[in-house]
């Protein structure tokens, strides 16, 4: 399943990223993500290997992942779930994407009086700690706070050439 | 199983991370290990091993928790950018008791600002045992901000100043002045609670364009109205953030068919766009007598320590307010110094009272109501009847026609409110202190009184 155009626009709007997993023995784990990008029906998420080590371990165990994206200006919140997540690729190649998302997120929080110095604390991972996780979203949920948070929203079926 | 905390970490020590400046993030998983991540509105410290999370809606997170009893929670430090991640085990849901009431008061205080009282219904306080708490590694944290003032020392100084006050006016000015001088709290309002009318009346303020004495709000309105109704302090350090969150919930509620309209936002009193507010009830003798509301233009201006300090100072103020009466050995009731009302010049003033709530209007402009309204009516009537201008507090307290059940407790305060209200309105009827336990009414124009019993 692929993301709608509206969902893809949200990825670059300055969202906060939260990435969740669950180990095989039932331990839920969560960390802050640094960037997300749509790649031909798949979702790419960048995580710090240091702060996200538990999530990366859980993903390696079973491939299950939930990525929450929330836009501070209106609390619009979407989650994408998948069960084929793989941890692959790391390093400086992801720095431009991370910097771009960092700037957009920092601009968002500035509206709430949170200065860039504060946001920098979350984005202080060095290049060698940037790790890419890719998965195919099988479900999307609207997580905007309120009644019905967690309800499914429609993704676009991917049509393969015959 | 014993809890595992990183060195130096305690739940008490991370209380400030539970303020919601950066909303807490909850991760749960279904029985087949599919994770779910969502934001929470409130997290509350319970004891060294337990926290409470607000349960407002039945959603995916709750479904997962009830099935697996496990959750992970991240909390971010609003000052340094540091954070902790907790492993939680669900214990139970409380629907009454102090933890539930604290969560509900916080939720309602914020919700009432944006007309969300109906939707922001707290179903329960979910109690979790904390199995682990670890620092989020790899963050380049900022140094913690230096304290605004030496809060314990300066609170003690203010307490000593208040202890030396001899009347309500002095006590009030000392409190509001001391908040600014000693605690660097530049915007404050002191509200009185009228239990019979279920309203709060503004007694005095400091740090605003106008004093606003006599302004009213209903119990339950805003942070201050909720603090009075619940009898607990309520603090919000990120008004803008919570308002945005509340609006998001309202939109979702509307989409889900819940009746949330019309729900006009109640204008915030005082500052147009406060970033932090703290409302502290004035409690004495087991009752709530009013509340102090302090505000700031800065985010996260008030912390737990401010809450503790103001609770103590407001307690002292409330006890003093309820006890501060003029000495019982008062001078005899003054006699009329002039038996005839002087021939005053200028157009006739029309003083009108509505009996149902003792609201008093001067030339059709609302002046005051309740206890203060009844007192004003009595003073003017007596003046017109006998020409007497001076009155003792004692005779007012004993006046049978006032029939005011609360007057025993805070007559001094009501007189002060009336005096300030008249002064602020600059009307031709003014009240002034005429010595210990005595008041003098000054009437600058001829008055006609009109009673409406409807």
Please give the largest β-sheet of chain B.
8 strands, mixed
Poorly predicted sequence stretches spanning 5 or more consecutive residues of chain B: 259-268, 336-340
SSE pattern of chain A: HEEEHEEEHHEEE
Instruction: Tell me which oligomeric state these chains represent.
Output: heterodimer
Counting DSSP H or I runs of 4 or more residues, the number of helices of chain A is 4
In the predicted model, the low-confidence regions of chain A spanning at least 5 consecutive residues are none
Coarse structural class of chain A: alpha+beta
Distance between the termini of chain A: 17 Å
Class by alpha and beta content of chain B: alpha+beta
Question: How many whole angstroms does the radius of gyration of chain B measure?
Answer: 26 Å
In whole angstroms, how far apart are the ends of chain B? 69 Å
Report the major sheet of chain A: 9 strands, antiparallel
Largest interface, per-chain counts? A-B, 58 and 56 residues
Considering DSSP H and I runs of 4 or more, what fraction of the residues of chain A is helical?
A: 10-25%
For the largest beta sheet of chain A, what order do the strands appear in spatially? Answer: 6-7-3-2-1-4-5-8-9
Strand % of chain A is 35-45%
- Mean pLDDT over the full residue set of chain B: 84
Number of helices of chain B: 10
Beta strands of chain A, count: 9
């Amino acid at each position: 399943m692929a993301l709608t155009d509206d969902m893809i626009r949200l990825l670059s709007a300055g969202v906060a990223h939260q990435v969740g997993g669950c180990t095989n023995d039932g331990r839920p784990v969560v960390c802050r993500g640094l960037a997300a990008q749509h790649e031909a029906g798949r979702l790419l998420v960048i995580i710090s290997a240091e702060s996200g080590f538990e999530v990366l371990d859980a993903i390696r165990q079973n491939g299950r992942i939930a990525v929450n994206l929330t836009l501070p200006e209106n609390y619009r919140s979407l989650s994408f779930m998948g069960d084929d997540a793989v941890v692959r690729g790391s390093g400086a190649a992801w720095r431009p994407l991370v910097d771009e998302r960092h700037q957009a997120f920092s601009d968002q929080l500035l509206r709430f009086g949170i200065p860039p110095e504060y946001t920098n604390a979350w984005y202080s991972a060095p290049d060698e700690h940037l790790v890419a996780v890719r998965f195919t979203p099988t479900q999307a949920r609207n997580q905007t706070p309120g009644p019905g948070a967690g309800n499914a929203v429609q993704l676009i079926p991917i049509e393969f050439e015959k | 199983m014993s809890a595992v905390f990183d060195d130096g970490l305690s739940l008490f020590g991370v209380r400030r991370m539970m303020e919601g400046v950066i909303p807490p993030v909850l991760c749960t998983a279904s029985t087949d290990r599919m994770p779910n991540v969502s934001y929470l509105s409130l997290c509350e410290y319970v004891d060294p091993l337990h926290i409470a999370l607000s349960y407002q809606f039945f959603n995916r997170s709750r479904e997962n928790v009830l099935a697996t009893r496990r959750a992970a929670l991240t909390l971010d430090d609003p000052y340094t950018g540091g954070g902790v991640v907790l492993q939680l085990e669900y214990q139970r849901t409380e629907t009454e008791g102090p933890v539930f009431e604290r969560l509900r008061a916080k939720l309602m205080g914020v919700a009432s600002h944006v007309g969300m009282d109906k939707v922001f219904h707290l179903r329960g306080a979910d109690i979790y045992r904390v199995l682990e708490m670890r620092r989020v590694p790899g963050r380049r944290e900022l140094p913690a901000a230096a304290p605004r003032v030496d809060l314990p020392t300066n609170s003690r100084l203010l307490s000593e100043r208040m202890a030396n006050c001899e009347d309500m006016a002095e006590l009030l000015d000392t409190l509001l002045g001391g908040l600014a001088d000693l605690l660097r709290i530049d915007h404050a309002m002191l509200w009185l609670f009228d239990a019979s009318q279920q309203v709060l009346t503004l007694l005095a303020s400091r740090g605003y364009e106008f004093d606003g004495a006599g302004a009213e709000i209903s119990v339950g309105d805003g942070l201050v109205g909720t603090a009075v109704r619940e009898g607990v302090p309520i603090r919000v350090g990120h008004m803008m953030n919570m308002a945005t969150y509340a609006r998001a919930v309202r939109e979702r509620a509307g989409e889900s068919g819940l009746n949330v309209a019309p729900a006009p936002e109640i204008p915030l009193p005082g500052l147009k766009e406060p970033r932090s507010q703290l409302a502290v009830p004035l409690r004495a003798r087991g009752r709530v007598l009013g509340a102090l509301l302090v505000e700031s233009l800065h985010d996260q201006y008030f912390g737990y320590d401010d809450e503790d300090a103001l609770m103590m100072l407001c307690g002292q103020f409330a006890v003093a307010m309820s006890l501060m009466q003029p000495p019982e050995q008062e001078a005899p009731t003054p006699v009329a110094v002039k038996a005839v009302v002087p021939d005053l010049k200028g157009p006739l003033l029309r003083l009108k009272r509505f009996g149902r709530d003792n609201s008093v209007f001067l030339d059709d402009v609302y002046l005051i109501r309740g206890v203060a309204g009844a007192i004003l009516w009595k003073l003017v009537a007596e003046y017109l009847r006998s020409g007497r201008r001076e009155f003792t507090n004692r005779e007012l307290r004993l006046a049978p026609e006032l029939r005011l059940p609360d007057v025993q407790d805070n007559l001094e305060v009501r007189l002060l409110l009336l005096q300030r209200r008249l002064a602020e309105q600059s009307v031709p009827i003014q009240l002034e202190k005429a010595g210990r336990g005595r008041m003098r009414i000054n009437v600058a124009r001829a008055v006609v009184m009109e009673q409406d019993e409807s």
